[in-house]
Amino acid sequence: MAERVLAAGSATAADLAERFGVSLMTIHRDLDDLERQGVVRKFRGGVTAQPSAVFESNVQYRLKTMRAAKEAVADHALRSVEPGMAIMLDDSTTALEIARLLRLGKITPLTVVTNFLEAVNLLAGRRGIHLMALGGDYDPLHSSFLGVSCVEAVQALRVDVCFASTSAVHGGYAYHQEQHIVSVKRAMLDSAARRVLLIDHTKLARPALHRVAPLSRFDLLLVDDGASPEALRDLDEHQVRYEVCATKGDDDRAGAT
Length: 257
Hints:
Structural class: alpha/beta
Low-confidence stretches: 250-256
Protein name: DeoR/GlpR family DNA-binding transcription regulator
Pfam family, one: DeoRC
Number of helices: 10
Radius of gyration: 19 Å
Order of helices and strands: HEHHEEHHEHEHEEEHEEEHEEEHE
GO molecular function: DNA binding
InterPro entries: Carb_Metab_HTH_regulators, DeoR-like_C, DeoR_HTH, NagB/RpiA_transferase-like, WH-like_DNA-bd_sf, WH_DNA-bd_sf
Strand content: 15-25%
Largest sheet: 7 strands, parallel
Domain HTH deoR-type: 1-49
């Protein structure tokens, strides 16, 4: 059931009951369990895996969304990476696209620091890449390591550039739904000589609960070419330095970090 909701983005209880051949009471009980696990959130008559102002999508859902946009942003981001650098990747699926490109081995030697288990699995053992995995409390919903231990591990390092993403950008600030994610991202920004914000266009002018940092904290914001003129004007009004990245394909499903 979780796989079906994550693949579709949302579903009604009635559709799920019909699909699995069980009663609505059984479906609602199972959906309650999935909500408690943080996989989905319920609304009247169904559930959704899509993000909201206070709910960050499960990593398995985020891995499937806005792939063309994330690939375009990641490809553009690599223009600022040179052999010999130390870079930090946060636990966003946008930064994961950078890891996918790095595993091709075209930019080496390189030191890569990350708290994202997905990125660790991609880069482990790759020739020319010195991989540093940040420890902490493992969070299965984000497939990353978080908490005080992770923050302290980040604070002990200094990297050339940090590539990070957030769930929302609005009014000159970057936002995220979850406070324990925010603390790690802030520490990462503090540890870097240069900071690059990676976002897909669906994150512009949308809300999330916690401020991560003012956009002025970033040296550059990268966004795909699906961004509307109105959203880009808002960035201009806040004097944000940004670059628009050309996509190779269309993907209209709303993304998360």
